[in-house]
């Protein structure tokens, strides 16, 4: 297909993913568009014309190398502004990982809804479309007055599990909120049984397993979540499954945030494998034994091509 009017712009958070997306589309990613002044201010120079192009900016709102989540957010805003002033035809934001998505509602009388604030900022800057993967909360799409395409990486993970040809697999949701996602993967694995863990969260980044709803004894359990941050929830779930007699435990998630004690907890958990997608760069010091990283560049590039050629995205979202 003719993709000559597409430009892929890489932010600082994940240039390797931007390059892979561009490769699938038969083009090149525009990289190294940002520099820093001595006081830390970000300066952007696109370095080439974008006039009349449909531009896709690839930027995960995660920490990366020497850049914080907030650095990457500010850089993204500045890139959008540069594109707007350079007369890009359309400015589309590819957020493989949407940071601040967990702050999607008021949790106290004097707390913000930061995910809505991020939506306001990106729209005000000039974004015309958001393309993301496995939002922590679907309601975030309603925070925007522009299209928000929320792709699903469950099939990538399910295809990887299926090719192992394992017997007696059960799919485990680590909490009630993830049941829909786990049920979708169970259907892709020849309608494997579904297990749900009932947990409570006494405070942020801490959880306690209360009950396991479903049979796991002698089974291979695959715990599926949208993200792994400090890994407390998912390793507590793994420990509870092993205690209940699960033969092997795999943990899988789209986004590997892996902050704080996550790597140590996973390595001590006794799980067989940890399966993540490459929506976030995983530095060398966090690459542990049993880690499998699945690429999302083909999925994202197909979505970009469908958008560019006015084709439906439903095959990438609904299955």
Topology:
Layout: E1 6-10, H1 15-24, E2 29-30, E3 34-36, E4 42-44, E5 54-58, H2 69-85, E6 90-95, H3 114-125, E7 129-133, E8 148-151, H4 154-162, E9 169-173, H5 179-188, E10 194-203, E11 206-213, E12 220-228, H6 232-243, E13 248-256, H7 262-267, E14 273-277, E15 291-294, H8 297-308, H9 314-317
Distance between the termini: 24 Å
The number of helical runs is 9
Which term fits the overall shape? globular
The SS-based structural class is: alpha/beta
Radius of gyration equals 20 Å
Notes on the structure:
It is a single chain. The longest helix is centred in the N-terminal third of the chain and has 17 residues, at 69-85. The chain is globular, with a radius of gyration of 20 Å. By secondary structure, it is α/β, with parallel strands linked by helices. The strands form 3 sheets. The protein has a 7-stranded mixed beta sheet. Strands 2-1-5-6-7-8 form a 6-stranded parallel beta sheet, sandwiched between helices. A two-stranded antiparallel sheet has the order 3-4. It has 2 domains: 6-152 and 297-317, Rossmann fold (3-Layer(aba) Sandwich), CATH 3.40.50; 154-294, Rossmann fold, CATH 3.40.50.2020. Helix content is 29%, strand content 26%. It starts with 5 loop residues before the first strand and ends with a helix. The protein has helices at 15-24, 69-85, 114-125, 154-162, 179-188, 232-243, 262-267, 297-308, 314-317, and strands spanning 6-10, 29-30, 34-36, 42-44, 54-58, 90-95, 129-133, 148-151, 169-173, 194-203, 206-213, 220-228, 248-256, 273-277, 291-294. The protein has 9 helices and 15 strands. Helix 1 (15-24) crosses helix 8 (297-308).
């Amino acid at each position: 297909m003719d993709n000559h009017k597409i430009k892929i712009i890489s932010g600082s958070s994940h240039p390797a993913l931007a390059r892979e997306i561009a490769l699938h589309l038969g083009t090149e990613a525009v990289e190294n568009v940002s520099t820093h002044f001595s006081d830390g201010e970000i300066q952007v120079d696109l370095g080439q014309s974008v006039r009349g192009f449909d531009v896709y900016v690839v930027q995960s709102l995660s920490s990366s190398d020497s850049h914080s989540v907030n650095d990457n957010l500010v850089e993204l805003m500045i890139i959008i502004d540069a594109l707007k002033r350079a007369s890009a035809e359309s400015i589309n934001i590819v957020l493989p990982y949407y940071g601040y998505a967990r702050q999607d509602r008021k949790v106290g009388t004097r707390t913000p809804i930061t995910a809505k604030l991020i939506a306001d900022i990106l729209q005000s800057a000039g974004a015309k479309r958001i393309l993301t993967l496995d939002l922590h909360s679907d309601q975030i799409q309603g925070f925007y007055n522009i299209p928000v395409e929320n792709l699903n990486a469950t099939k990538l993970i399910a295809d990887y599990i299926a090719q192992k040809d394992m017997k007696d697999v059960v799919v485990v949701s680590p909490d009630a909120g993830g049941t829909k996602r786990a049920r979708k993967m169970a259907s892709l694995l020849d309608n494997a049984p579904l297990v749900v863990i009932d947990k409570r969260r006494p405070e942020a980044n801490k959880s306690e397993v209360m009950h396991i709803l479903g049979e796991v004894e002698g089974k291979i359990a695959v715990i599926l979540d949208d993200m792994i941050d400090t890994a407390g929830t998912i390793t507590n779930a793994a420990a509870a499954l092993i205690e209940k007699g699960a033969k092997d435990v795999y943990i899988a998630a789209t986004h590997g945030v892996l902050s704080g004690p996550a790597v140590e907890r996973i390595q001590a958990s006794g799980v067989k494998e940890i399966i993540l997608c490459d929506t976030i760069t995983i530095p060398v010091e966090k690459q542990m034994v049993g880690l499998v990283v699945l690429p999302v560049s083909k999925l994202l590039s197909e979505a970009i091509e469908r958008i560019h050629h006015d084709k439906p995205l439903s095959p990438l979202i609904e299955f």
